Amino acid sequence: MEHETVGKHPEITSWKETGILQVKIGLDNPLRWVNSYILPGDGGDVTLMDPGPRTRSSEREWEAALSALGLSPRHISAIVLTHHHPDHYGLAGWFQERSGARVWMSERAHGEAGLMWGEGSRMGERLPAFFAEHGMPEPWLSRLPEHLDGFVPQVTPKPEVTYLREGMPIRMGGRDWLPVQTAGHAPGHLAFHHEDSGVLLCGDAVLPQISPNVSLVPGSDAEPLRLYLEGLRRLRALHVRAAYPGHRHPFTHFRERIDALLAHHEERLDIIAGMLSAAGSLTAFEVCTALFGDKLGIHQMRFAMCEALAHLAELVRRGRAEMRETASGAYAFAAAG
Fold this sequence. Notes:
- By secondary structure, the chain is of the alpha/beta class.
- The protein is 37% helix and 24% strand.
- The protein has helices spanning 56-68, 86-89, 92-99, 107-117, 123-133, 138-141, 144-149, 224-236, 254-279, 284-292, 298-317; strands at residues 3-8, 11-15, 20-26, 33-40, 46-49, 76-80, 102-106, 161-164, 170-172, 175-182, 189-194, 199-203, 242-245, 321-325, 331-335.
- A hairpin with a 5-residue loop joins strand 14 and strand 15.
- Helix 8 (224-236) packs antiparallel against helix 9 (254-279), helix 9 packs across helix 11 and helix 10 packs across helix 11.
- It is globular.
- It starts with a strand and ends with a strand.
């Protein structure tokens, strides 16, 4: 895929075949950056996709990026979001205030943003209680409310949202793109497919090097891994020559990468099932730390715990495990008898 670097701070890459501009917005976690995309239109306007989290650093990066490209917020005609996570959704309201552009995302994703970051969100209470039921000890639980509250500034102000629906094409960069809704990594997650060229803006549904996190969260989808695997198979059926992901670099080995992700999750299910058979029963926290260790920061531990729970829920759904209430009122998992 032919490309050239057109800006360095932040790094901006122009992908020549498609005209898409990739802007790397820095993150303060192991992912290092999120890919925001600018799709230039026919009349000087641009569509901005997944602008990143709102921090003072990301604001400065965007000011520098727009200046390097000879753009200002008034050139932004639409802001499109693949999903509700702060590293994708966060600056949408900030850009909307400056540009007047519509913000587009799926209704399901917008609902999830409210569940996690809305005015009436109780996730700071619900998630620690949920994790406590599944064996997480108090030293971890006590850190969760402050950790979750730390994301609120990254998603403020909240945007006014217009909903995208599957089967409703959206015009971006002089092309009509078809939204494809998947789930698992994030409820209501949208990828955008241009069939004639075989280009897919895939958000975090498929990443070239990282296995996207799949999380079981209270009040959200009850079977996220099932939904994620179904979504992968759906995306695999598309004609994709080049995929533009939310993290790392655009890539061409799309079907091979999906096959690797499908195999990875089946292997992890087998590993967990074997752990349950060997141990008799385990809490989700015990499974989590066996898989990922206990030396993680709170951000990574939250994702690890939610991922372990997603896999355990899938084993239960498949009849390979059972969830049982313990004498203490918590829950443990055992191999199905």
